[in-house]
Design brief:
heterodimer; A: 26% strand; B: six-stranded mixed β-barrel; elongated
Chain lengths: 242, 404
């Protein structure tokens, strides 16, 4: 199933496909300043993710995949080029609007879970809605339902420290879904988990994918390729294959 | 949009997770706010106490005392009486008399007064009535004179004998009927020298007649209101000076004038200087500890921000805007301040209560104190929180997330 493709510029898209595009990365470059020296990390990357895709971005450490993920997640801005998220040009919007866009459109799942230790599982899932809340969703009911869905219906009031790694990652997945985002962005979601819990977590992603979720997963583990529709390899800041 | 409810819950969670640190941080605020509260409360207690005390001595009184005999006569009495703003004046003469009741004799200060005195000196009668201008050989006894001085208590309508030594050395003795007895009053701090308790009052005409003198020892006058008392007193001073031929330039020379004059306003002022000094001290303590407390909060908030860098990254990645992160930390800083403020207010009120009890002051706790305490502590929290919160808000989400 090769739904994803590398593509060269917007012009090839007709109006129907534009509607289905979640992420459209247009020739982005990113470099960091190291002292006075400019160190390029990404060298002109193009990537298109359409609605309903499960894309794995693979690459060794230092390949620039984390930087790419920051670009996709609108956590950072490219030095050059453009990131279109749900048809919105992210170059021209303010940091606060970008944050709001993240809050509504992107659900993050991190390698080290990134839960707030003081809050219960339920409160962690609810947290994004404190800032960005979709009016048509009953957040509290949805938070409970999502935890139920990831199999933590009986752990609502547990703090992250009272949960296993796999359980924490499932809380994080539930949190990523709270605002019904257009894209789930997972950064090495199984990196801190053993094989068995990794499989459990990936099964959740699989079923989310089957349910219609768009997922982009950064990983260096070839084992994870099998879950994705499409694998994009990145090396030294270039996308390697199609 | 991040609501206040969630911000406060978040702040409380964070503060609670570092209980020891938070409580130590609030110490400066507690002391500062307690000092502010105690200061205002004690100030109010003192003022009320002084006003009560002074009020019990007289109503807007102006006292004029001669330093040498034969200074004041009826002429001066009329002058004082006719000064605008004076609503009552009584001449005063004073002599120690040998007072005999049954077979006992006691030496007691006797004052010759007119009927205005009762009102000007705010004399409260326990029984009977005060002297009026038609009275002859009647006496009004101070509470202590009637009930303490003699082995047997003196009652209304009893008779006493008073013996005066005249200026030529001869003595004169007359029988006086007791017309009234004053109420007991509890004055502690203010010793004006004119408390009625230990005195006997007789009509001034009778006293002058007995002593064969035609001058007054002084005047006890009342002004219309406490607001105008200084002006009225100055006017009386001027008129008396002109009448006695004292040059205007010597008006403030106490040594040259044959009399002195002071009013209730000045007495109150002197009293308020005492509480003013205490107030200044407490204000300095309050100010210093609030500054120290605010630096303490700022310091701890900077630590908190650094500690929670990755948390800030998480929040930002989840879509929290810069100003929401800012408000989160400012609210936390203000909550720390407010907790200090609540405790400080309680300690301050407790401290003021203790001091009031120790010094026998009335308990005055203006309700605004609570608001002052809350406002000051919230304000200190706000000021202390701005810099750390701004630091948190400006963090780059990628760097913050990477922070361990």
């Amino acid at each position: 199933m090769m739904v994803i493709r590398l593509y060269e510029g917007n012009s090839q898209l007709n109006d129907d496909t534009v509607m289905d595009v979640v992420i459209d990365i247009q020739n982005i470059r990113k470099s960091y300043l190291l002292g006075d020296m400019e160190v390029p990390i990404l060298h002109g990357i193009n990537l298109l993710v359409k609605k309903g895709e499960f894309v794995a971005i693979m690459g060794p450490s230092g390949s620039g995949k984390s930087t790419l993920m920051n670009m996709i997640g609108c956590l950072d801005r490219p030095t050059d080029g453009n990131v279109m998220l749900m048809g919105k040009d992210t170059r021209s919007i303010s940091d606060n609007d970008l944050a709001e866009l993240r809050g509504f459109e992107i659900g993050f799942v991190f390698q080290n879970f990134n839960l707030i230790p003081r809050l219960s599982a339920y409160e962690n899932v609810l947290l994004p809605t404190y800032s960005n809340s979709k009016v048509n969703l009953d957040n509290e009911e949805r938070a409970r339902d999502l935890l139920e869905t990831v199999g933590l219906g009986d752990r609502l009031d547990h703090k992250p420290t009272e949960l296993s790694g796999g359980q924490r990652q499932r809380v994080a997945i539930a949190r990523s879904l709270i605002n019904d985002p257009s894209l789930i962005l997972a950064d090495e979601p199984t990196g801190n988990l053993d094989t068995k819990t990794s499989t459990e977590v990936m099964d959740i992603f699989s079923s989310l994918h089957k349910g219609g979720c768009t997922i982009v997963m950064i990983t260096h583990d070839p084992e994870m390729e099998k879950y994705a529709d499409r694998v994009v390899h990145i090396r030294d800041g270039y996308i390697e294959n199609n | 949009m991040l609501g206040l409810k969630h911000s406060i819950r978040f702040a409380l969670g964070s503060i609670w997770s570092a209980k020891m640190r938070s409580s130590l941080t609030t110490l400066g605020i507690i002391i500062g706010v307690a000092a502010v509260i105690a200061n205002v409360s004690l100030g109010a207690s003192f003022s009320e106490f002084f006003e009560d005390e002074i009020g019990s001595v007289g109503n807007n009184f102006i006292v004029i005392e001669s330093n040498t005999p034969h200074t004041f006569h009826d002429n001066e009495l009329e002058l004082v009486k006719n000064t605008p703003g004076i609503v009552g004046v009584s001449p005063l003469t004073q002599e120690t008399g040998g007072v005999r009741y049954m077979s006992e004799v006691r030496q007691i200060p006797v004052q010759g007064v007119s009927d205005d005195y009762g009102q000007v000196a705010n004399i409260q009668m326990g029984s009977g009535s005060f002297i009026d201008d038609n009275d002859g050989y009647v006496a009004v006894l101070g509470y202590d004179v009637a009930y303490d001085k003699f082995d047997r208590k003196i009652a209304n309508k009893n008779s006493i004998e008073i013996t005066f030594v005249k200026s030529d050395g001869s003595t004169v003795t007359e029988t006086f009927r007791v017309k009234g007895i004053t109420q007991s009053k509890e004055t502690k701090l203010v010793e004006s020298g004119i408390e009625p308790e230990g005195r006997i009052f007789i009509p001034v005409k009778v006293m002058s007649e007995l002593l064969g003198d035609d001058y007054y020892w002084g005047f006890f006058a009342a002004a219309e209101s406490i607001e105008t008392i200084d002006e009225v007193s100055d006017e009386v001073d001027k008129r008396l000076a002109r009448n006695l031929g004292i040059p205007m330039r010597d008006l403030d020379e106490e040594d040259i004038k044959p009399y002195s004059i002071f009013d209730q306003g000045e007495v109150l002022e002197n009293m308020n200087q005492v509480s003013g000094a205490l107030g200044t001290l407490l204000t300095s303590v309050a100010f210093i500890s609030l500054v120290v407390g605010s630096i303490g909060i700022m310091n701890i908030m900077l630590v908190t921000v650094t500690e929670r860098t990755s948390e800030i990254g998480i929040m930002k990645s989840l879509g929290f805007k810069n100003y929401e992160v800012l408000s989160l930390f400012i609210v936390e800083s203000m909550v720390v301040g407010l907790l200090g403020g609540i405790l400080g207010t309680l300690f301050g009120l407790g401290g003021a209560y203790l001091v009031n009890n120790l010094m026998g002051l009335p308990h005055v706790f203006p309700l605004e104190l609570i608001f002052i305490g809350m406002f000051v502590s919230l304000f200190v929290g706000l000021v202390a929180g701005v810099y750390p919160a701004n630091k948190a808000a400006k963090m780059n989400p990628v760097d913050a997330l990477r922070h361990e």
